[in-house]
Structure of Alpha/beta fold hydrolase:
Amino acid sequence: MLNRRIFRISLVGTTAVALAAGVATLASAAPSHHTSSAPKPTVVLVNGAWSDSASWSGVIKRLQAEGYPVTAPPTALRGLAGDSAYLASYLKTVQGPIVLVGQSYGGSVITDAATGDTSVKALVYISAFAPDTGESAVGLATKFPGSHISDDPDAQIPTALDAVPYTLPGGTGGVDLYAKADQYRDLFLSGRLDDKAAAELAATQSPIDSQALGEPSGAPAWKTIPSWYLVSKDDHLIPPAAERFMAARAHAHTVEANTPHAAQVTDPKIVTDLIEQAARTVR
């Protein structure tokens, strides 16, 4: 089981008149990613730690083919409060109803960001954290045994991770956590992709500040917004038992599949199908 202490490391218009009118309209309007007349809700995809927005590529292609507006804003992975505040601000630029999807730590981000946002009609968790008030990602990850993130309960840093200190311009800094390249394939993909593909994903991963994983969550959006959950039965990072616990607590429409942690990478159809289930309920 992952030791709780391991994250305490500072955890064209055709005329000139028309063009001018168009510019004036754009200048006065709030930013928007699609029009409110879109026939389907906008799907907003939120990545977690040790991945990036590109991890949603297979899902995006399928959703767009079905006519869904889709966007995948980047997750800074600097801290839960900041990451969720950024996403909450971003959601205000999206017109019309939203289906908000989070994977891994991205689940924590959507849980906080969507609270009180009446545009968000459905939450979809993909092998994700769905914390309650005061809970953290590391606390939920250690609630049940089975994670491969560390095989040494006394290690100060999980054995599957590397700690990389960084310094900000003002002299302050923190610690970024990277997944080790030689353990990435097992931890996130459960051996589903070949070594070359896994190595590429490991090389392009986005690290997470260690503090983000221990930061407590605020009031959860899943208490007021309908949710869907993909339990990945072959998840080597978040124990499947933890996923079942979170899904049941949220009264989520739950699907279980023999998928790894990064199900959106290895099994985009399963992920897309669940998102579409949620989207079909939005009116």
Summary: The longest strand covers residues 120-126. Residues 16-28 form the longest helix (13 residues). The domain at 4-8+40-279 is CATH 3.40.50.1820 (Rossmann fold). The chain has a mean pLDDT of 88.
